[in-house]
């Protein structure tokens, strides 16, 4: 999905809002979506900056870091980017992202080139980046996941009697 920002760039205070609907198979990365991405995005011209804000929801197939089974992980996405208007005037030049108190995601010139082609916003790439940021580093299928069945044998067996003296060191006072 691409948004033409020409209307927004022409007038300070102008904005556009669009619904996001991206089919599950369209975004390509190391994970798989189990449902389409649904949400909305709003692009506003705030005089010196173009502000992109929105939210979306989807589910991603992840592998549990304990038991190694695949599970569906629901993801709430927050789309938040601030880019200087001067970036579009210079046709994606190396202008620095100004921080005027907005809490938008700071972008490098390379990131700006990924998201914007002249005055066109690539919403698919924006959503893909938001998903990458929303996925946990060590996902769990459930909070009390016991882990691999083979590892349970080590947890459930009796302590070695030769280590009984060490057990007293670990007990709290």
Classify the helix fraction into a percent range. 25-40%
Walk across the major sheet and give the strand order: 2-3-4-5
N-to-C terminal Cα separation, in Å?
62 Å
Q: Number of helical runs? A: 6
How much strand? 35-45%
Find the structural class using helix and strand composition.
alpha+beta
Major sheet: 4 strands, antiparallel
Question: What is the H/E string?
Answer: EHEEEEHHEEHHH
Textual characterization of the structure:
The chain has one domain (2-148). Helix content is 25%, strand content 35%. It has six helices and seven strands; from the N terminus they run βαββββααββααα. It has helices at 6-10, 85-89, 109-115, 123-134, 149-156, 164-170, and strands spanning 2-4, 15-22, 32-46, 49-63, 70-84, 116-117, 120-122. Strand 4 and strand 5 form a beta hairpin. The longest helix has 12 residues, at 123-134.
Offer a concise description of the structure.
The chain has helices at residues 6-10, 85-89, 109-115, 123-134, 149-156, 164-170, and strands at residues 2-4, 15-22, 32-46, 49-63, 70-84, 116-117, 120-122. With 173 residues, it is α+β, with helices and mostly antiparallel strands. The strands form two sheets. A four-stranded antiparallel β-sheet has the order 2-3-4-5. The chain has a three-stranded antiparallel β-sheet with strand order 1-7-6.
Please supply descriptive tags for the structure shown above.
173 residues; alpha+beta; four-stranded antiparallel β-sheet; three-stranded antiparallel β-sheet; 6 helices; elongated
Task: Give the SSE map.
Layout: E1 2-4, H1 6-10, E2 15-22, E3 32-46, E4 49-63, E5 70-84, H2 85-89, H3 109-115, E6 116-117, E7 120-122, H4 123-134, H5 149-156, H6 164-170
Antiparallel strand pairs: 1-7, 2-3, 3-4, 4-5, 6-7
